Amino acid sequence: MGDAQCKKIGEAIGLLAFEGEMISCERYGSGHINDTFRLVCKDRGVIKPYIIQRINHEVFKDPVTLMKNISGVTSFLRETIIAQAGDPDRETLNIVKARDEKDYCQDSEGNYWRGYLFIEGATTYDKVRNPEDFYQSGRAFGHFLRRLGEYPAKELTETILNFHNTPVRLKAFQEAVKADVCNRAHLVRKEINFVLNRENEADTAMKLLREGRLPLRVTHNDTKLNNIMIDDKTGEGLCAIDLDTIMPGLSIFDFGDAIRFGANTAEEDDPDSSRASLSLELFEIYTKGYLEGCKEVLTAEERTMLPMGAKLMTYECGMRFLTDYLQGDTYFHTSRNNHNLDRARTQFALVADMEKKWVEMVEIINKFQ
Question: I need a surface site. Which of 64, 202, 312, 315 has the fewest CB within 10 A?
Fold first, then answer.
């Protein structure tokens, strides 16, 4: 398998209640955090495909609680999908329990593993191939939020504390600037000032949450295109995957993170930040899909705050990249010099372009009210 932490995969396969005898097991997907494999078994002549994953317990410190979150949400979704006459085997993840009935297993070296039914006839895409894909991802994430509208968000545990808490991220950034452990602050004074010039907006969403004006919801928190499976035949957004960051959160942040990633005219780490801008076409397409998926679930305040969600998520992400640059590139994986700095500059260029196009963004949201 290459990765020493995955050498116990054979043991894990035996501990999870997969049906039949293993035919093959190969690495699968493009994820960078967990180790993912497609397992194929044969049971009395029937081919049965599965996903088996090693949970990265260095990133997710409490895999047991994480799996409790996922189990609760997927069980709820399955019941909801059945009640709506949908296909529960394809429209949500389905956990393969361990032979001891837990939602995970632990190998003899302490690694945590889990299994899922493999969803056939659907594909994930790392990039927007066409506007329809982006529309379908928006519709699917909106539908995901709506289906979980009655799930008690406070029962979920934060798998990564303060994951989307912009004031907390700002404080960490300010501390990194002050410490300047790598003597890099003087090289990025322009970028530092960009962040500080907007610090009065950092608490906007969290303040509305504290005041009860934005509701706490069950949110995905990683709403990239490649976390939606697209049906190969119909082209429709089918199922939200990668639920490790499912937590209590704000709908505007789920919306905003998708816009940050999918409606940018540049790659996230483009070394030429002048290529970064907001595609209003893609912004409108995603908004249409997302609001169709949500239907009546969002409040008027949530709808009004969707542009701010896009801006705050982009601002926060750029701030995190710049924080990591100042601290010596210790969190995000880098593959070249100034990689995190390039990422930060691209995010800030996108924020600046959103500010220029703010009236148009608001008009688009109002179009779908």
Answer: 64
Per the structure, the count of domains in the chain is 2
What's the DSSP call for residue 31?
Answer: -
Q: What is the pLDDT of residues 92-122, one digit of tens each?
A: 999 999 999 999 999 999 999 999 999 999 9
Q: Is residue 290 part of a domain?
A: yes
pTM of the model: 0.92
Q: Are residues 95 and 200 in the same domain?
A: no
**What is the distance, to the nearest Å, from the Cα of residue 332 to the centroid of all Cα atoms in its chain?**
15
Residue 332 has a pLDDT of 86
How far apart CA 169 and CA 184 sit, in angstroms, is 19
Q: Output the DSSP codes for 271-339.
A: S-GGG--B-HHHHHHHHHHHHHHHTT-S-HHHHHTHHHHHHHHHHHHHHHHHHHHHTTS-SS--SSTTH
**Residue 141 to residue 290: CA distance in whole angstroms:** 7
Give which of 16, 220, 17 is closest to 137, Cα–Cα.
220
CA–CA dist 288, 285 (Å, integer) = 5
pLDDT tens for 286-326 read 999 999 999 889 999 999 999 999 999 999 999 999 999 99
Residues in contact with 282: Cβ distance below 8 Å, sequence separation at least 6, in sequence order: 128, 131, 134, 262, 263
Tokens of 92: 């949500």
- The residue among 220, 180, 124 whose CA lies nearest residue 323 is 180
